[in-house]
Design a protein that fits this description.
Layout: H1 2-17, E1 37-43, E2 47-53, E3 61-66, H2 72-84, E4 88-89
Antiparallel strand pairs: 1-2, 1-4, 2-3
Length: 93
């Protein structure tokens, strides 16, 4: 029983250091994640304006694109982001 309690006490500080939690700086994908992230700023029937974070870069850029030029994977992510008002990963590019 002492060993289980000791192990539990050891794991609590490690999990708090592991970077679990939020922050307002946008997504921070790990090296294992190869997903782009988007955050919709404005969307109408003709155009979408959004923040874009490619998985292989540290910089976030702002883009405005005609909806007809956006592929389905990005359009789905942009729609989810518009509803949730958060950064959304682009699935199934």
């Amino acid at each position: 029983m002492k060993k289980i309690m000791l192990l539990t006490l050891l794991l609590i500080p490690v999990s708090s250091i592991a970077g679990v939690g939020g922050g307002g700086v946008g997504p921070r994908p790990t090296n294992m994640m190869s997903l782009d992230f988007v955050k919709t700023i404005a969307m109408d029937n003709e155009q979408v304006t959004f923040m874009y974070k490619p998985f292989d870069q540290n910089q976030v850029s702002k883009k405005s694109v005609a909806i007809s030029e956006v592929n389905d994977a990005y359009l789905n992510a942009l729609a989810v982001s518009e509803i949730s008002k958060t950064w959304t990963p682009v699935q199934g590019d």
